Amino acid sequence: MSWQDYVNNNLLGTGTCKSALLAGHDGNIWAEGGDLQGKISVDELKRIANAFNDASGFQANGAILGGSKYIFLTTDGTVMRLRKGSGGAIVVKTSQAIILATYDESIQPGQCSTVCEKLGDYLRTVGY
Fold first, then answer.
1. Taking residues 68-76, what's their average pLDDT?
2. Rounded to an integer, what distance in angstroms lies between the CA atom of residue 9 and that of residue 101?
3. Mean pLDDT of 28-44
């Protein structure tokens, strides 16, 4: 299965994510789709990857995704939750990858989180 297949089938295909991407910790995007396709920069993803270790900058200023500001809610070191209006984003960090998915008011945050975390668990079992 290609990285794009994971985005299309395991994230967007579930109907619980409005946009999604897979990237490395270096910010390089492996696959993406949905509303934010082509809008999230390498620097934005690097900042997100680093915030798993030190979220103080996000706590004070929020996170920027695709040029839009998201309010930082929480992280436990592997899952980060961000909010933008009535929607938000879920970010999951594995040993090599970042899974990022957004949701809007028509999607429950927990639904989006569940599919992202399940994909993260799977990628961890196969060494990513």
1. 96
2. 13
3. 96
